[in-house]
Amino acid sequence: LQPAAFIATPILKVVEPVLPGPASVSRMLTALGLFPRKGCYLYGGKWMAGPVFPEGMKVNSLMGLSSNQQFMALPAGADVKPGDCAFLRPTQSEAVLQHFGSIAVFSAGHIVERWPALPMG
């Protein structure tokens, strides 16, 4: 089976992340491979969804979760910029999709239809 639904959310910022506190801690954790060299902030957060694109994007437990702007770790070579979209795959589509408007049906490179999500309740 192939995934049928994805969430697209804008990338707000692309950063060389630094943890709060002494910069030496971030440098040490980065050198040990425990903290990313590159990251981005997504619109929204605490998604009930797993990261799909950009390839290699993942949640970073040291930065924690946010419902406003979610920080995501990126591979050092990720080629993204503000305004690009990140894609997430819902883990509970019946719960997640109700928080959005209609579902855009994408086929052959175009949005071909819009489907309403089931109402809450």
Could you please describe the fold and organization of this structure?
The structure is a single chain. The two termini are 28 Å apart. The protein has helices at residues 23-31, 93-96; strands at 7-15, 38-43, 49-53, 58-59, 69-74, 85-90, 103-107, 110-115. Strand 7 and strand 8 (110-115) form a beta hairpin. The strands form 2 sheets. The protein has a 6-stranded antiparallel sheet, with no helix packed on it. The chain has a two-stranded antiparallel ribbon with strand order 7-8. The protein has one domain. With 121 residues, the chain is mainly beta. The longest helix has 9 residues, at 23-31. The chain has 2 helices and 8 strands, in the order E-H-E-E-E-E-E-H-E-E.
Number of domains: 1
Report the mean per-residue pLDDT as an integer: 88
- Give the N-terminus to C-terminus distance in angstroms: 28 Å
> How large a portion of the residues is in β-strands, by DSSP E?
35-45%
